[in-house]
Design a protein that fits this description.
Largest sheet: 6 strands, antiparallel
Number of strands: 20
CATH architecture: 2-Layer Sandwich
Shape: globular
Number of domains: 1
Number of helices: 15
Length: 494
């Protein structure tokens, strides 16, 4: 029986400061993250002791040194927020990791809340910059200088599931799901074949099938084995092959279909062999074909289009769910998945309200028709970038949203609430509420632990190895009866 698909996303944002000759991305990121203020101003550490990024899911430890910043750098680069999220500096990018959620609708709400939080901090940071400069933040995946940065998904899985099976089934799924998950991109990068427009921003940057790396020789399947939960029971599948999406509908379908396929893998419900002969070549070629008609070679079978291969997964998903009780959101994911594949097969441009790459393409083509421009025009490249601008009054996606020209799956009140409120049905609730109630007594935080500094006593670390425990249902009475962190720790151990 598949474990519940607790999930989350980690978004690395593009950052620049216009008119700053001495622009330093790292110091700008530090300024940005620290410009975001909540009610408390406690100096809380991120607990790197609980992390092991060198563990490989194939059963070994990779050689290398784990980087652990000193205390001052740790505090300067990390914020754990009262909504249960982590907001921090990752290399030369600001990164927002949303709190753990149990369904894709909540995921959309909390990922979008992350956009709002980054924009709030951008405005605060802007007030501290020299006159004439302007900080700009983009929710995209490349800087057009050969650098790509990630939009990662995380899913809880049963550790008993063979990682070999996970790889076997996910390679064709990930190579082809970009027909509805791609954010769209003008041109190509990373020595790929030239093209006018492609489906996904990241596809040109994948160079191998399976590996631990995330920055060089990027793999379609990442093997990081860092569960942030009970290692004996769970693995966290760390997905690096997706784009940073603006469309709520795209985010919803991206994570919803993926979570369903992972459950099917755990339950042995992938009954057809749709392995690709060359997944790395396929992921690039599929991205370069906005018609969605290109055929790729199966390892043991004929050539098929990406849409046809996704239909195979959808048909298996429909068979899998036909004999099970499924929740309304999963039913809705199946409906949307089928709706999107039907239109991709007929005419992808019919999805100009739903799917990021189509929304962007329609927007740009409309501009080119009106202005007599072509795909090589600087204005077109600028529109490509401006689509991902997180400023509500400047970003082209937000312009379409205000005009009611894109489909939504959440509403603004929910997103605004999620800026300060954690999900109520995962351990993120306990983490966020402890930060809200006892900020001066929280010493350190990680996804699966929280540590309290209580007077002169040794640091008290509370482990949270079960992602579904620590929910409001589990801990609200405990929190309400604890007037201090010391009392909370005492009550927990009673």
């Amino acid at each position: 029986m598949a474990v519940p698909k607790v999930m989350g996303t980690e978004i690395e944002y593009g950052i620049t400061v216009r008119n700053d000759r001495d622009f330093d991305p790292i110091s700008s990121c530090v300024l940005l993250v620290n410009a975001y203020r909540e009610d408390h101003d406690a100096k809380i550490l991120w607990d790197y002791d609980q992390e092991n990024p060198l563990a490989d899911a194939r059963g070994f430890q990779v050689e290398g040194e784990k980087y652990t910043p000193n205390q001052q750098e740790n505090i300067a680069r990390n914020k754990t927020l009262i909504n249960g999220a982590r907001y921090y500096v990752d290399h030369a990018h600001p990164e927002y990791s949303c709190p753990e959620v149990t369904n894709v609708r909540d995921l959309v709400v909390h990922e979008k809340a992350g956009e709002r939080i980054v924009e709030i901090s951008r405005r605060e940071a802007q007030a501290l910059l020299p006159k004439g400069t302007q900080m700009l933040i983009y929710k995209n995946n490349s800087d057009r200088k050969g650098n790509s940065y990630g939009s990662h998904e995380n899913y809880l899985m049963d550790r008993r599931t063979s990682f070999k099976q996970i790889v076997e089934h996910l390679l064709p799924f990930f190579a082809t799901r970009q027909v509805y998950t791609g954010a769209g991109k003008v041109g190509s990068e990373n020595r790929s074949q030239p093209c006018d427009y492609q489906l996904a921003q990241r596809s040109d940057f994948f160079e191998t099938e399976v590996a631990l790396d995330t920055m060089v020789k990027r793999p379609i399947i990442n093997t990081r084995d860092e569960p942030h939960a009970d290692r004996e029971k769970y693995r966290r599948l760390h997905v690096i092959v997706g784009d940073a999406n603006m469309s709520e509908y795209t985010i919803y379908l991206r994570n919803g279909a993926t979570a369903l396929v992972l459950a099917m893998i755990e339950d042995g419900a992938i009954t057809r062999d749709v392995s690709l002969r060359d997944p790395v070549r396929a992921i690039r070629e599929i991205s370069h074909d906005p018609s969605c008609k290109l055929e790729v070679q199966l390892d043991r079978g004929p050539k098929v289009t990406a849409v046809q291969l996704q239909r195979e997964f959808l048909e298996m998903a429909l068979a899998y769910t036909s004999s099970r009780e499924i929740d309304p959101i999963t039913k809705d994911v199946l409906v949307k998945w089928q709706y999107v594949l039907e239109r991709l097969e007929r005419d992808p441009m019919e999805l100009s309200r739903e799917i990021d790459w189509v929304i962007k393409k329609a927007l740009i083509e409309n501009f080119m028709d009106r202005k007599g421009a072509d795909w090589g025009s600087p204005q077109v490249e600028m529109m490509d970038l401006q689509y991902h601008d997180i400023r509500p009054d400047k970003g082209l996606y937000y312009l379409l949203e205000r005009k009611g020209q894109v489909e939504r799956t959440a509403d603004d009140d929910e997103i605004t609430a999620a800026i300060q409120k954690p999900p109520e049905d995962t351990r993120a609730y306990f983490r966020g509420e402890c930060l809200r109630r006892f900020p001066d007594q929280v010493f350190g935080v990680n996804w699966d632990s929280i540590s309290f500094g209580i007077g002169d006593e040794p640091i008290k670390r509370i482990l949270m190895a079960e992602p579904l425990k620590g929910s409001k249902e589990h801990v609200e009475d405990l929190l309400s009866s604890s007037t201090s962190a010391a009392e909370l720790v005492k009550n927990l151990r009673a």
